[in-house]
Amino acid sequence: MVNILVLYYSRDGATKAMAQLIARGIESVENSEATVRTVPNISSNCEKTDEAIPQSGSLYATLDDLKKCDGLALGSPTHFGNMAAPLKHFIDNTTEAWFAGSLSNKPATVFTSTGSMHGGQETTLLSMMLPLFHHGMILLGIPSSEDALRETQTGGTPYGASHVTHSQQGLSQDEKKLCFALGARLATTALKLQKL
User: Fold this and answer.
1) N or C, fewer C-beta in 10 Å, the chain?
2) How far is CA 9 from each of CA 30, 54, 59, 94, rounded to the nearest angstrom?
3) Which residue blocks in 30-146 are alpha helix, DSSP H?
4) If you write DSSP's letter for every residue of 128-170 in order, what string do you get?
5) Rounded CA gap, 103 and 154, in Å?
6) pLDDT single digits (tens) 31-55
7) CB atoms within 10 A of CB 87
8) What is the distance between the alpha carbons of residues 189 and 171, in angstroms, rounded to a whole number?
9) DSSP conformational letter for 104
C-alpha cells in the first residue's frame, strides 16, 4: 500500500478542485490512497499563520505528513509566475525533513491554476519543482501519450497539470482528465519504486 500526499494551497477553489481530482486518480490505482492536505494562509504583515485547525475543508499539513508519504503532489495557484506565499512558507520550513532525507527517492508532481492563458503556469510549475529537487525527489510530468495533453485548448502542460480560469466555469474536460491521469501516474510510480 502507498500513501500519496496531495498538498495544496487554494484561494478561490480551482487548485482545490484539481487536488481532489488528482486524489481520485491516485485512488483509482489498486493499493494506493491519497491524503489531501492544505496549508494555512499567512498574514501580509508578519509570519503569523491561521489557526491550527481550519474551519472547513482539508486539514493543514504537518511535517509528519511529508515524512510518512510515499509520494507527493504539490499544487498552488500562480502568483506572478510563482507559487503562492502560504505554500512557499510551508516548504521553507521543511528543513528538518530535508536533513533527514525524508522525501529522498520518492516520486513527486506539481499542479497549478491561473487566471489567464499566459498567466505563468509553466514557470510556477518549474519553480515548485526546485525545492522538490533539493529534497531528492523524483519528478514526474505528463507524457505526450495522454491524448488530452495534445488536444487541450485550456490548461495542461508536460510539466504538470494546470488550469486556466479566465473565461470558464470550473475545470475543462481535458484539465480534469489530465489531473486524474497525473494522480494515477504518481501512484503507479510510487508502487513501482516501493518494490525496488
Assistant:
1) C
2) 27, 13, 11, 16
3) 63-68, 85-92, 95-100, 121-134
4) HHHHHHHTT-EE----TTSHHHHH-SSS-BTTBEEEE-TT-SS
5) 32
6) 999 999 999 988 766 555 556 666 7
7) 25
8) 25
9) T
Q: What backbone phi and psi angles, to 5 degrees, belong to 42?
A: -120, 150
Which residue is associated with the grid cell 514526474?
Answer: 140
One-letter amino acid at 15 equals T
The three-state secondary structure class of 22 is helix
Please state the pTM of the whole predicted model: 0.94
Identity of residue 1: M
